[in-house]
Design goal:
Layout (H helix, E strand, L loop, with lengths): L10 E7 L2 E7 L6 E5 L7 H8 L12 H9 L8 H18 L11 H10 L6 H20 L26 H10 L2 H13 L3 H4 L7 E4 L2 E7 L6 E5 L2 H8 L19 H15 L15 H11 L4
Antiparallel strand pairs: 1-2, 2-3, 4-5, 5-6
Helix pairs in contact: 2-3, 3-5, 6-10, 7-10, 7-11
Length: 309
């Protein structure tokens, strides 16, 4: 295929898609992608302008891990959720501190897997953080391979230490009664909503009053979950209907702060933890403390007890 009109050094990749064929253009082999389209030899002025903004090629020796982190954080591969973005930035800054001055070509060597595992040992005291470090290291290295910055890497399927199974942990009626004696009403509402809907904290704080519908069998919540983007229909139990009835008419959100402001998932979770400690709620039989996340299992248990599937 003729390449006469492509700038010197441009690397073109042909990929099949459902609609046919698309071409991806990189400033140089392993360099940044600056154009994508259906034409193998674009003639638009915008194509040449985009190429001119890419600068000069960086040799593999000069392309360091710190450059890789910068490129990834400025790419379209970051998730949309602000919480997820913040987590990724935090862990990639740790990754940069350790490997920033090293050429990324080091990750094409098998020994790099051991280097990354040694770095993760900083968080052996916290298995969840230990695993998170590996997850984000693998994420950015996978992106580097996809973008042609690395031929391969050896940090796939890093061993995980953290194992979470909290499905058996529930808030009992006794726990809730004790909690109500100490927590303010607006915090009690968070726990009630969690125990009656089973929604994740990130979804729970987004529930709006106009998302409750009347049905022949009572009210139900119609909600699109953030994790999978699926519509969930949640029947309103007697406790949830009472919560709805007690919500001021002008209030748009089901749950608000003491000052009537929207909540964040982290703030809601922190408040449950704070007032659980004040109320001295006993831990589960294996010593684990109950959290807002455990209301999911509580809700499932209550709905099953109500003869729902």
């Amino acid at each position: 295929m003729p390449r006469s009109n492509l700038p010197k050094g441009v690397h073109r990749v042909r990929r099949k898609v459902v609609s046919g064929v698309r071409y991806h253009f990189y400033a140089w082999r392993g360099g940044p992608k600056f154009w994508e389209g259906t034409e193998p030899n674009p003639k638009e002025p915008e194509f040449f302008h985009a190429f001119s903004q890419c600068g000069m090629p960086i040799s593999p020796v000069e392309y360091l891990t710190t450059h890789l982190v910068d490129d990834f954080l400025s790419s379209a591969s970051l998730p949309k959720a602000e919480r997820s973005k913040a987590d990724i930035r935090k862990w990639l800054e740790f990754f940069r501190e350790e490997f920033g001055a090293d050429p990324i070509a080091m990750f094409e060597e098998r020994a790099s897997r051991g280097e990354v595992n040694n770095w993760r040992k900083k968080w052996l005291h916290s298995p969840k953080q230990h695993d998170m470090a590996g997850t984000h290291a693998t994420r950015v290295l996978n992106w580097a391979v996809e973008e042609g910055k690395l031929k391969e890497h050896h940090c796939h399927k890093l061993k995980k230490l953290y194992q979470s199974n909290r499905t058996e942990i529930i808030w009992t009626s006794g726990d809730f009664a004790q909690f109500k004696k100490h927590a303010p009403e607006w915090v009690q509402r968070i726990l009630t909503a969690g125990c009656e809907t089973g929604l994740r904290a990130a979804d729970l704080v987004q529930v709006q009053m106009d998302q409750f519908e009347d049905t022949p069998h009572g009210k139900r919540l119609r909600f699109r979950t953030s994790k999978r983007g699926q519509i969930a229909f949640i029947p309103a139990t007697a406790a949830l209907e009472k919560l709805i009835a007690e919500t001021p008419e002008h209030q748009e959100m089901l749950l608000v702060s003491e000052l009537g402001r929207p909540l964040t998932a982290r703030w809601a979770s922190n408040q449950i933890t704070k007032w659980r400690r004040e109320a001295q709620i006993p831990p589960w039989i294996d010593g684990r403390e109950k959290t807002l996340s455990d209301t999911r299992g509580t809700a499932a248990t209550r709905l099953l007890n109500a003869d729902l599937s």
